[in-house]
């Protein structure tokens, strides 16, 4: 079992400065356009009893670069976190903030999350689910909410082949960790605060499976070998001791599934947005280079290169390159 930061980073590596450098602390124009176009976002929050919750919410409005507004679930307080989905788009936009009066949220962090989890899950390519199939066995995509020692929230997407969240026994789940954006926010938070929540969806269905419990991190080789993709074995897994589960209908999901068949107009390429965020944190010549890369993305050159890199990376892990 992994119990400290040194042990964690020995297995998954330390967060890279280049990745952390893509974080901005207010909504830029591109981020505001993403929020305006997103029909649904994962929300991680704690309710009035301190219980961690993860769910899907609908429209989120950007009132200013540092403030958003939405219809928050009853009792949502303190630090909250979001993952914004764009139908048909691989990358997601993550936002962390703090609840203020009147369903307003003060923006603290904004960053683009890479598209591997969406590609692994084939989120936008749903197949019919057999009636009565076990929810987790049919789910290719979940969001996990966690909190650090200071109570700051983070919600992270996870996607893979259906059934990738393993049921070890009636009270224990295992979520394999594969290569992603390299921030390892969830793992670092769990080392400081073990309470987590997750929500799972099945493409095309209007229900969410909600789970809350406590989590730990394992690098147990015997367990990890049971969760391969091709020849690729995850380097670690999140173990969730379940305290409560329920399946609930979610009014936002039908909007998300309807929207996936339409074109998302007026939204910047999210990889271009990530480059712009990184450039905004640089100075002088480095900022100019970043802006140049963002311009190249607008011509589609880097976008095509990134798509090729995604395919190559997933093929190396054992996934289909299609």
UniProtKB/TrEMBL annotation:
Signal peptide residue numbers: none
InterPro entries reported for this sequence: Pyridox_Oxase_N, Split_barrel_FMN-bd
Gene3D superfamilies: Electron Transport, Fmn-binding Protein, Chain A
Domain Pyridoxamine 5'-phosphate oxidase N-terminal: 133-227
Highest taxon of the lineage: Bacteria
Protein name: Pyridoxamine 5'-phosphate oxidase N-terminal domain-containing protein
UniProt source species: Virgisporangium aliadipatigenens
